[in-house]
Structure formats: structure tokens, C-alpha cells
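Course assignment 3, question 2. Fill in each field.
Student: A.L.
Task: Predict the tertiary structure for the chain below.
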Amino acid sequence: MNIIVVGCGRVGSHLATLLSEDGHNVSVIDRAADAFKNLGRDFNGRIVRGIGFDESALMEAGIDEADVIAAVTSNDNANLMIAEVARRIYEVPHVITRLYEARREKTYAQLGIDFACGTTLVAEEIFSKIQSGHGHHIDTFGSYELARFAFNLEDDVTMSCSELERDYDARVVAVEHDDETILPSQDTILHDGDVAIVCVAREDFGRLSRFIRS
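Answer field:
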């Protein structure tokens, strides 16, 4: 995809790097020349110095062919203006904005603007971890807990996914073993240090914790 990232601070530079490494065509706009140093030497996208809602900067960044534009500057008003210009004038298919003020979420939703609010995301994630009572929490689905953790097994002990699922009312969703991530089968063997995403009944998580590396 052709993607424009407006804002090259910590969030923007990291996002641009991730997108570039994933094989996308990335252009980054920022008004400060020094900001592009955040991208590092390996970034192979296009950099444009200018204001994110300025027509000349957007055209140089390739907005006519953009599939996505992400407005992630440190100013909510600037991000909103960038989003509106991209949506209404250039009809970019997917526009995403960074939002600082959580109180504006309802307004953005009413305007139909896709956004990510760091304040809300962080607060909700910490809140959910506090509610779950452990630091391995990913999400909750009804009475089930989705958790990510490393297995703590004795060196000579292994366990199959079917054993874990049978004995602990759990489902192993994914396993990372020796830098390889797999979707496990019933016969997949779990080893000490393997990292897994596991869905388990909340009432059974305590029993499963004996296998979790702390």
C-alpha cells in the first residue's frame, strides 16, 4: 500500500519504520528537518519537509495515490485538519488520526473519523490488567481469559497441547518456539521457555499459573 505518515516524532517514526519494513511504500511529512533523524539509517521511504495539511507537501508525498494517511503529530487540531483535508479533498480511502484528548472521542466518532487515543488505550489496558489480577492478560471474552506467557517447565519435561487443553479447559492459539511462530495442532509439543497465547476459562487460570514463567 501507499501510506503517508504525518508527524515524525516517536510514534510517527516508529510507525513509518514498521510500515516500511512490512513492504509498504511510505512517505513521511514533518515541518522540522531534525525530526527525520528519528527514522534511522535503514528507512527507505520518502521524506517531505512541510506542513501536513499543506497541498504542496501532500502532493510531494504522493497523496493522489495514497491508500492510507496517518496523522500522528502532537497536536489534535492539526491532526483533525489533516484528516479532513485527506478525506474530503483527496478522498483517501483510509484516514487515521492520533488523538490526545480522550474527551473528544465522541466527537470524532460522530464525524466518522478513525482514531487511536493513547490516553484511552493505555488506561484501558492497565485497567484490564488490574481487573484480571495478572500481567499476562491480553483480553477477556465472556468467561474466558486470553493470555500470553512463557512456559515454565523443567528442562526434561514437555507437554502436548492436547494435554494442556484437556486438563485445564484451555485452547493454545499460537506458540513461538526457537524464533518460529506456529499455529499448533493437538500433537504440538510445548517446551520450557516457549511463548504461547492461550485462551483459558477465567476460573481455571489460577491452576494454569503453575506453568507460567514469572
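Instructor remarks: The chain has a mean pLDDT of 89. The chain has seven helices and 13 strands.
Grade: pending
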